[in-house]
Amino acid sequence: MSPAENNLEKVNGISESFLYETSFYANITVGTPPRPMRVLLSLWHNACYLDALDSRDCFLQMSHKDCGPDGGYNASKSSSSRFTASGFTLDDEDISGKVFNDTLTIGDATLDTFPLHVITDPNHIVLSNTLGLGYTDSNSSSLSLPRALADAGIINSTAFSFWTGPGGYSYNGTILFGGVNKAKYVDPLHTVPMVPDVDGLRKALRANMTNLSIMGVSPSPDPFPLDAAFDNQASLTYVPEAVARPLFKHFNITDIPNTGQVKVPCDMVSSNTTLIFEFGSVKLPIPVGYFVRGDSPYEYEYYQDTCFSGIAVNKHYQHKGSIVLGTNFMRIVYMVFDLDNDEVSFAWRNESGPDNILEITSGKGSVPGATISTQACMI
């Protein structure tokens, strides 16, 4: 057991390593006897969605790596499985499937009864099994993992923090439920309120973003403030065209393709230019080079010395938010989501240091060391 896990036992929390590709994946077990499965940890979703053993998705997965060693969830193979309902919704779409209560283990924590939404719909393609971390919907069968851990008394609040490995481009990271690891960020840890409701959009992990400036100069402040959703299923950061166009113009880019993602000079990786993401009084200065990449989710042919912007026009994710902050943003900072108090906290990641884990307690001001920002501050 790692030192982090030992410390976590003392503060009544749990940690789990995740694999960072373009999203965050973790290993869990479900059922009795426990069967290992690989799941996407999703900030956007609020329930657990698994493919059925005989689903079309699992059949198409030759290695079955996304469906588990048995291809998917098989209720008949688990003595602790209990059927509870037929049919459910996923991303506002009615899905053919069944809901079972069963045992789920992640890290050192075991939930004896956790709702599993098992997809049998042959027309619905799920790219991976999903374990939701978002707000639980009280009007449905959904139950997010943080809420379930808090309800079971394993952690004291519906809160979690996460960080990626050194360098920001690492393929591993850690999610810590019910605690913060002070060794993994550099003070200060600033807290801003999340946006509980946005007209026409369901409740999700969002904050008000008040500006996106270049070296402190706003190319176009008019559209702000805008709601910004945190989505670790999106590899890029997406902004409205009214924000993107003047931003690209600063770099002498005027043509925006239909995909919304522009090509940029590869030497921008070493540019001294800084983008400042502003959330009220909290300002996050990030070198523009962090948003230059050598590949694109929209391009299938690559050419030497061709690079792409990691900030794109939001043409595909308006249902999530005006701005969508994807993994290329979240891998740079240490983040804490406190769902009980509708707050999100930011700090710079620390590249090294021995673990120093503190519990997130219940009630207001429960994130240790965090400061609710009321004055302009630069992280």
TrEMBL record:
One of its GO terms (molecular function) is aspartic-type endopeptidase activity. One of its GO terms (biological process) is proteolysis. SUPFAM superfamilies: Acid proteases (SSF50630). Gene3D superfamilies: Acid Proteases (2.40.70.10). Transmembrane segments: none annotated. Residues 24-347 form the Peptidase A1 domain. Disulfide bonds join 266-307. Keywords: Disulfide bond, Hydrolase, Protease. PROSITE patterns: PEPTIDASE_A1 (PS51767). It comes from the Eukaryota. Belongs to the peptidase A1 family. This is Acid protease. It comes from Aspergillus avenaceus.
